[in-house]
Structures are given as C-alpha cells and as structure tokens.
Design brief:
Length: about 220
C-alpha cells in the first residue's frame, strides 16, 4: 500500500516539483496539496494523509504554528519539515511543537523517500546536518550547571556512550556496527538499552537528553 502524502508549501513551483519527483517513487502517493498551514489543517482532517511534508515560512499560518495546532487538536499525523532554514531556533521550535522530522530542501530524492517511509512507520528522521546544528546550539546554550546522572533511570555504560556519540554524528545502526566492529544486532540492543535509560523513544531525543545531562 502506498504512503499517502500531503505537500504544504506556499510556492506553487516547489509543490509541483515535489509532486513530480515523489511521483517517481512507487511507494508514495500525493493525495493533497496546501499553500499555507491553515489550509493544511483543514485539508488534513478530510484526506487523512500518512505523512505531511511541511514548509516553515508561509503566509496566513506558518509551518511551526500549523504543527502546534495539529497536535493541540489531537492529530497524530507525522509531520516532516522540509525547508531551507537550518538555524537552531527553527529546528528546535519544530521539535518542540511535535514535528517528527526535519530536512533541508537540498536533500536527494532517495533521502526524502527514506524519511517519509520512516515517519510513516512511526520513526523520526533528522538529517546529520540538522542534528549537528541542534547539538551545537544546545551546547552553546547549556548553562554552567549541568544535570547529573541521577536524572537517568540507570547510568549508561561506556559502550552505550560510545554508541550514543555515533548516533549524535548521524550514523545508522549498520554504520555504527562497522565503526565499532560489532554486529548490527548488538548495536540495536545497545541503542534500545540507552534509550530506555534516557527515558526517550527515538534517537534524536536521546541525543537531546544526553546533551541536557552533559553526557555529550
């Protein structure tokens, strides 16, 4: 079954371009388009897409406000922010209001399709450049008073911290396994363990929590 996607961007050429590109994939079906956050909220309630691709800066209602209202209205449709803005403020606002992914518009079609698939399967997706910007901004804004490991459910092992650092660098489980000379299964178990100890459900929030605790 194809993944139903809604495109939200105020520029007609961008929407048409994305529509043409994504139509090349046999996994995706574009079921709706909108030119503002307000229109996206109205249409999403009717067509119920599996994933929403959302620009940030749009007239009438921007993407950040739209995601916030979707979540306040009880919508759990995954939202992938697709934008040209890679500043820390925009990225953090998107995460805080409930976006599940954040990509820049210069990504390849393959990466975009992978991200859409990930969100449709209940996962998150943040490209390495975005993750690095998040980490940099959080480290710059971290106060001199760091949280201690008492905030953890259980302290991380040295091996789990090593895996966490590679997650923060944007590596996949397969890439981490190759880097540490471990099996992919072992890495998956360590990722699950460290996320449990951090009390988070996805890799991006694991990195954010680790930074907050002073582990990275």
């Amino acid at each position: 079954m194809n993944i139903k996607v809604m495109l939200v961007d105020d520029q007609t050429l961008v929407r048409e371009g994305l529509n043409s590109l994504l139509s090349l994939s046999d996994k995706i079906e574009i079921t709706a388009q909108a030119s503002s956050g307000k229109e996206a909220i109205q249409k999403s309630a009717k067509c119920e897409p599996d994933v929403i691709l959302m620009d940030i800066r749009m007239p009438d209602m921007d993407g950040i406000e739209a995601v916030q209202l979707l979540r306040e209205n009880g919508s759990r449709i995954p939202v992938l922010m697709l934008t040209t803005f890679d500043d820390h403020e925009s990225i953090m606002k998107a995460i805080q209001v409930g976006a599940e992914g954040y990509l820049l518009k210069d990504v390849s079609l393959e990466v975009l399709v992978d991200a859409i698939e990930a969100l449709a399967n209940g996962k998150t997706w943040f490209q390495p450049a975005v993750t690095e910007r998040i980490i940099q901004g959080l480290k710059e804004n971290r106060t001199s008073q760091n949280s201690d490991e008492g905030a953890l459910i259980e302290p991380l092992t040295d091996k789990e911290v090593a895996v966490l650092r590679l997650i923060a660098a944007g590596l996949s489980n397969n890439e981490i396994a190759e880097s540490l000379f471990k099996s992919t299964g072992t890495v998956k178990n360590q990722v699950s363990s460290l996320m449990g100890k951090l009390g988070v459900r996805d890799r991006t929030r694991a990195v954010l929590k680790a930074i907050d605790l002073g582990l990275l």
